[in-house]
Amino acid sequence: MFFALKGENFNGNTFAEKALKEGAKYCVVDEKEYAINKNYLLVSDVLKTLQQLATYHRKQLNIPIIALTGSNGKTTTKELINAVLSTQFKTVATQGNLNNHIGVPLTLLKLTKDTQIGIIEMGANHHKEIELLSNIALPDYGLITNFGKAHIEGFGSIEGVIKAKSELYDHLKEHNKLIFVNENDLTQVKQTEEYNNLNKFGTASTSDSVIELVSTQPFVTIRYKEKIIKSNLAGTYNFNNIAVAIAIGNYFKIDLNNIVSAIESYVPTNNRSQLIEKGSNTIIMDAYNANPTSMLAALENFKQLEKNYKILFLGDMFELGSTAEEEHQNIVNYLEKNNIGNTFLVGKNFYKTKVNITSILKFETFDDLKAELQLNQIKNKFILIKGSRGMALERILELL
């Protein structure tokens, strides 16, 4: 079935005839002139119809749905939850980060009568988006990875972020569904303190799943029920992502050995906290995305790693609106105070910052950085690469 969706630069209705010729049984269109025979289903709004059909399908199957959102770590957390649950259940999870008003319905429509659990990632950069996605997916369980300074342009402030992400909590509370809460995150605790249907995890002895951070050198190692779990994920911030997966595995009675093997065998891809060896250099590639919260977390983690000869490549953070100048300067101030290693800043926002130490170099464009790296080869270094998706800093790998 072909859904004639519209975008800024295309009208799906114009492709309907071609879709039928290429094997679609039906085409859902919302412009009358394209509905020329019984194989065209005319509706008032194709996108809304897709969303309604996904909800109908989800209700028919009545499969437990876990929903997650948050400012950072959504996709890694979703992958870890899926890795753990799929050891004993047939799962369907969001592919990649198809987590918006189109991606969520498409994931729900992938559920079949054989599916035992659905795992739905929800992303948003404006208020009411998580509310919409919750009403489409109707989750039975939910969690928020964290509240950070992401998409400030759309949310207005950190308080706006908390309010927007908590639309998932609001939906779950309204329908008396279970919320997984990280007890180490005081904002999560506060947002759920008057609600009883909770499953708590964290380092506190009061948690339903007590999980301890053992080490982050160079990967996160965890202790859970006297088992040591050695992950392939770099960065202290990944402790919480792994802890969620353990807590959900525990709740769904996944065998402890399966939880351990699922987490230990998970290897990150897509430039998310990957450890890469390239020539004589060792690289933490964390260039999938960035905001002030995740950037500071990455820097703090990199600072603590016991390595010599560190180099940092940091790219602009996008969607910060009027706070962009201040937030980029905050990162520079942190770097000046901590002096982790020689730093290359790239992007228009970083280029505008005031820098007072010679170990920080600024480049307005990627091409400017490229010219520098072609003149000065980097060897035998421990490197962090971090920036927003639009900066595409993974291109640096080709220059090392």
TrEMBL record:
Q: Where in the cell is it found?
A: Cytoplasm
Q: What is the lineage of its organism?
A: Bacteria, Pseudomonadati, Bacteroidota, Flavobacteriia, Flavobacteriales
Q: Which reaction does it catalyse?
A: D-alanyl-D-alanine + UDP-N-acetyl-alpha-D-muramoyl-L-alanyl-gamma-D-glutamyl-meso-2,6-diaminopimelate + ATP = UDP-N-acetyl-alpha-D-muramoyl-L-alanyl-gamma-D-glutamyl-meso-2,6-diaminopimeloyl-D-alanyl-D-alanine + ADP + phosphate + H(+)
Keywords in alphabetical order, please.
ATP-binding, Cell cycle, Cell division, Cell shape, Cell wall biogenesis/degradation, Cytoplasm, Ligase, Nucleotide-binding, Peptidoglycan synthesis
Tell me what this protein is called: UDP-N-acetylmuramoyl-tripeptide--D-alanyl-D-alanine ligase
Q: Where is the Mur ligase central domain?
A: 69-248
Picking any one GO molecular function of the record gives: ATP binding
State the InterPro entries in the record: Mur-like_cat_sf, Mur_ligase_C, Mur_ligase_C_dom_sf, Mur_ligase_cen, MurCDEF_CellWall_CoF430Synth, MurE/MurF_N, UDP-N-AcMur_synth
List, in alphabetical order, the GO biological process terms annotated in this UniProt record: cell division; cell wall organization; peptidoglycan biosynthetic process; regulation of cell shape
Q: Does the keyword Membrane apply?
A: no
- Where is this protein primarily located? cytoplasm
Domain (Mur ligase C-terminal) spans 272-389
What GO cellular component entries does it have?
A: cytoplasm
General function of this protein:
Involved in cell wall formation. Catalyzes the final step in the synthesis of UDP-N-acetylmuramoyl-pentapeptide, the precursor of murein.
Q: In which pathway does it act?
A: Cell wall biogenesis; peptidoglycan biosynthesis
What EC number(s) are associated with this protein in UniProt?
6.3.2.10
Q: Does the record bear Signal in its keywords? A: no
